[in-house]
Design a protein that fits this description.
Number of strands of chain A: 5
Number of helices of chain A: 7
Structural class of chain A: alpha/beta
Distance between the termini of chain A: 35 Å
Strand order of the largest sheet of chain A: 2-1-3-4-5
Helix content of chain A: 40-55%
Radius of gyration of chain A: 14 Å
Largest sheet of chain A: 5 strands, mixed
Oligomer: homodimer
Shape of chain A: globular
Chain lengths: 156, 156
Amino acid sequence: MADERFMRMAIAKAREGIGKGQSPFGACIVSAGEVLACSHNLVWSGSDITAHAEVSAIRDACARLSTIDLSGSVIYSTCEPCPMCFAACHWARISKIIFGSCIEDAQGCGFSELTIPNQRMKQLGNSPVEVEGDFMRGNCLELFREWTARADRRAY
Amino acid sequence: MADERFMRMAIAKAREGIGKGQSPFGACIVSAGEVLACSHNLVWSGSDITAHAEVSAIRDACARLSTIDLSGSVIYSTCEPCPMCFAACHWARISKIIFGSCIEDAQGCGFSELTIPNQRMKQLGNSPVEVEGDFMRGNCLELFREWTARADRRAY
């Protein structure tokens, strides 16, 4: 399954971030079978509170293609995008969001999430982006466990 | 009035952006009377769909102070922050958002806004950020008029 392969890339990238003291989130953007960008969360590395995995991947994909329009692409995110990242996906015209764990899981680890699910954001904002959750959730939850076991973890 | 002075700075920055072919939005972040960052929208200049004025100002302020925590600061935005920017303010722990025109005004100019007002985001996400709208709305609406009159305008 292609979806599984791309989610595994997002998970591997998140794991790489955990190893570098970053937060346990990864995202991979794919268009027509080609990976445009794959990033882990970079909030701590750059003191940039907006550098979530999804926002970072969107920036990378836009820079790579010199475009602000990622129509037709799919973003695989290890955790449900927060409202900032959901809205960034909407602005970038990403066609589909596929995520593993959910916002409440991140909140349970101490992240001060705005707990508004993607489906609610989509409905309230009338966004055309497709949303599929609970994809490889078990593998994605494992990232939180690995991160929680580390002494250098810092939520925000 | 200090609030008026800082909003005028955000408006002046937005106007500078319009002159450079950018979108008609500006934001200014202030802490204890000191301007930490003031930015106009940079979406087109860097092919970065996430580079709204508020996100850009938050990145600048965080980089300047080497922090991800802007507690106690106020953001003055010429237009109501979109849900991406509202959530970015929440993550950065900005204490108060003061804005001029509203999301519907931007939508009316062709921007594909998720039309979820800040107050609704705050309520649904249970965010502590204070929100004050309709501040110098007339001056802020003028920015849309100036931008609309330009042949090089590009909404997204």
